[in-house]
Amino acid sequence: MSIEFHNVTKRYGDAGSPLVVKGINFVVPGGTLTTILGPSGCGKTTTLRMIAGLDAPSSGRIVIDGVDVTTLAAAERNVSMVFQSYALFPHMNVLQNVSYGLAVSGVGKAETLRRARATMDVVGLAGFDERLPSELSGGQQQRVAVARSLVLEPSVMLFDEPLSNLDARLRRSMREEIRALQQRLKLTVAYVTHDQSEALAVSDQIIVMDGGRIAQAGTPAQLYEQPASEFVAGFMGEAMLFDAESLADGSVRLGPLTLQPRRPVAPGRAKVAIRPEAWVLGAAGAAGAPGMSGATPTLAGTVAKCAYLGSFLELTLDTALGSIFVVVPDVETAWAVGDAATLTLSARGVSVVSA
């Protein structure tokens, strides 16, 4: 059950109103999970609502499983949506909440009960029949919302910021459960979030939106390792952007460093995105690891800040390129403010994009 957008636009109001979604094209392959990622106001939730049929596009076509659904109402699309607020009925118990969609669709009582309990088993809610939403934890409420959508056996499931109301540990656990459920049942899922780590953890494909347009689409590894623009490089994870120059011989000059990018970049002004984990930290004068070109591009620095976070260190160093933030897994080496250090670029976590 694939989802296709063909030059879809959306504006709220009359023809003079600004476009919220600006002619986007993408495909969610059947049986996969695609995350629509971006900052607030980029158009990601509007895009999800158009898939659901809750908002009609201003132009373009939406196709689900080969059928043009652009003008079909939400009830005609066989699509279920899990909302950020869960939207559970507070006066109904878990079983009644999960059964509601089947009951109003005219499914018989016995079949409704069988399917509801089977779905509750799938999401780990067996034995919770009589609990009210107010008696459940946040994670349990989310499971009820997922079960209520899943019991309808939809062609497509949509998630709108489903984990934003949970604490960090529960978010990690629930995203793993959603991913495992999607893979086990081979569901086609479109998933909206603003959390880059969440998107990287659950997705087959990530679509990054910026200002109503698609900035880049690809696998998590492609977007993290090969960002196509300065915006994507800065948005996908914590990367520092440096002004650089791309030379005619294909190399890139970054201050005192010369890099060989993995992909060709047009000569002229460029940006180098370097992730905190891309730097290898050593004592002053120490030899570094192989860099992007097979050489050892190194940079002298002085430790300005150091923080111990259990399994890794966060350091800020003053260098010829300015202040650089570094994350290193070696927690055994003690660093103090004022220590001289050598920074060496590894082969991963470094991207060059046109400015």
Please tell me about this protein's structure:
- With about 350 residues, this protein is an alpha+beta fold.
- It has 2 domains: about 5-225, 3-Layer(aba) Sandwich (Rossmann fold), CATH 3.40.50; about 240-355, Beta Barrel (OB fold (Dihydrolipoamide Acetyltransferase, E2P)).
- Helix content is about 25%, strand content about 35%.
- It has helices spanning about 45-50, 95-105, 110-120, 140-150, 170-185, 195-200, 220-225, 230-235; strands spanning about 5-10, 20-30, 35, 60-65, 65-70, 80, 155-160, 190-195, 205-210, 215-220, 240-245, 250-255, 255-260, 270-275, 280-285, 300-310, 315-320, 320-330, 340-345, 350-355.
- The chain is globular and about 75 Å long.
- Residues about 285-295 have low confidence and may be disordered.
Notable characteristics:
6-stranded mixed sheet, single chain, OB fold (Dihydrolipoamide Acetyltransferase, E2P), 2 domains, 20 strands, Rossmann fold, 34% strand, alpha+beta, 8 helices, 5-stranded antiparallel sheet, 355 residues, globular
Order of strands, widest sheet: 6-7-8-3-9-10
The rounded Rg comes to: 24 Å
Summarize model confidence as the mean pLDDT: 88
Total of helices: 8
As residue ranges, the low-confidence spans are: 287-295
Distance between the termini: 39 Å
Strand content: 25-35%
What is the SS-derived class?
Answer: alpha+beta
Helix content: 10-25%
Explain the layout of strands and helices:
Elements: E1 3-11, E2 19-28, E3 33-37, H1 44-52, E4 59-64, E5 67-68, E6 79-82, H2 94-104, H3 109-122, H4 138-150, E7 156-160, H5 168-185, E8 188-193, H6 196-202, E9 205-210, E10 213-218, H7 220-225, H8 230-235, E11 240-246, E12 252-254, E13 257-259, E14 268-274, E15 279-283, E16 298-308, E17 313-319, E18 322-328, E19 340-345, E20 350-354
Helix pairs in contact: 2-3, 2-4, 3-4
